[in-house]
């Protein structure tokens, strides 16, 4: 789909907009999302009328947005009684704008991603598995912070447990369509800029963080947004296993691929250039700590990085020249050291 005018050009690849080939997992997740959200609305609507029908002169009427349902919504002080909310909260929304946005994103983007992954299990694992792990982590941190500063964080507040689609999908778009331009601003000339899919994650994160901080003022949702971002990236970077068909080859060298070791998918390249010098040593030390000292993740080998770069280049990613030079320099030093020994 394309739109051209005097001020900007807008284009979305036709492969994303293929509505006639919706894979099975996307269909099931979309149906579950719509059904769960409508069920939650129905339960809250019934409770709202029941409560207000019993209102007396001494008890004020309750507003609809105050109605909660701990079965579907993640509420810290109710989760022990309703642990299923950790999973079910991935499939509900109470905000109509977020519901519509997630529904379109799931139908259109989910279909594109599942077709590229060629794995229904991965789609379900990503949305429900990563989403549930994120919800559990946010829940534990919220409870811990409550006991440290009880007056600042309430355990009766609803946590939004459905950010995986909104945050995780832009990360995948950056991975699959890194250099594809979405909007090309032409006029005025001082604003001339090409917005590619690789910029989408940081734009989404910035907008959502500012909205939660200054509009809704919801600390736990800001926490959920960023934990979701890191959880999705960590899974895609280190743990996801895709079949050879997902990377467009049947070579024995690419039987399957675990994670994405490409230079362009490093965490540092999700952030603006102006703060990269500040973040790079922090990320490098963190990576060394969790991979070499704590052995939480398996460090990438040179062959893993080369394989990841090959796949990224097939997707249109540009080489990161500095990283290639650094690795070649380090490889030469290692060879020289071996000869000296």
Automatic annotation (TrEMBL):
Compartment annotation: Membrane
One GO CC term on file: Golgi apparatus
Keyword Transmembrane: yes
Keywords (A to Z) from UniProt: Membrane, Transmembrane, Transmembrane helix
Principal location class: membrane
GO biological process: retrograde vesicle-mediated transport, Golgi to endoplasmic reticulum
Species this chain originates from: Maudiozyma exigua (Yeast)
Pfam families, per the entry: DUF1751
Transmembrane segments: 126-149, 161-177, 197-216, 222-239
Membrane topology: Multi-pass membrane protein
Protein name, UniProt field: Uncharacterized protein
Source species, domain of life: Eukaryota
């Amino acid at each position: 789909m394309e739109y051209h005018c005097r001020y900007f050009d807008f284009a979305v690849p036709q492969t994303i907009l293929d509505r006639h080939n919706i894979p099975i997992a996307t269909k099931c997740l979309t149906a579950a999302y719509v059904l769960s959200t409508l069920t939650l609305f129905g339960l809250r609507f019934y409770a709202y009328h029941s409560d207000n029908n019993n209102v007396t002169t001494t008890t004020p009427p309750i507003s609809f947005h105050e109605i909660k349902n701990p079965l579907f919504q993640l509420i810290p002080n109710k989760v022990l009684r309703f642990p299923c909310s950790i999973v079910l909260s991935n499939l509900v929304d109470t905000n109509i704008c977020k519901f519509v946005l997630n529904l379109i994103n799931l139908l259109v983007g989910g279909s594109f991603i599942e077709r590229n992954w060629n794995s229904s299990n991965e789609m379900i694992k990503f949305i429900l598995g990563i989403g549930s792990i994120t919800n559990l982590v946010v829940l534990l941190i919220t409870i811990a912070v409550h006991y440290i500063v009880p007056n600042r964080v309430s355990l009766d507040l609803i946590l939004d447990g459905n950010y995986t689609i909104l945050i995780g999908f832009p990360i995948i778009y950056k991975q699959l369509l890194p250099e594809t331009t979405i909007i090309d601003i032409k006029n005025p000339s001082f604003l001339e800029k090409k917005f590619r899919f690789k910029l989408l994650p940081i734009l989404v994160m910035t907008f959502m963080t500012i909205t939660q901080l200054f509009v809704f003022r919801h600390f736990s949702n800001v926490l959920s947004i960023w934990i979701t971002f890191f959880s999705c990236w960590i899974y895609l970077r280190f743990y996801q296993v895709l079949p050879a068909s997902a990377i467009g080859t049947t070579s024995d060298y690419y039987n399957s691929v675990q994670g994405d070791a490409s230079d362009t998918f490093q965490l540092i390249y999700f952030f603006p250039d102006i703060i990269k010098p500040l973040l790079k040593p922090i990320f490098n030390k963190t990576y060394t700590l969790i991979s070499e000292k704590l052995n939480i993740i398996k460090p990438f080998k040179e062959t893993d990085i080369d394989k990841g770069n090959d796949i990224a280049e097939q997707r249109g990613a540009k080489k990161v020249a500095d990283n290639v030079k650094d690795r070649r320099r380090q490889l030469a030093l290692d060879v020289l050291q071996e000869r000296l020994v």
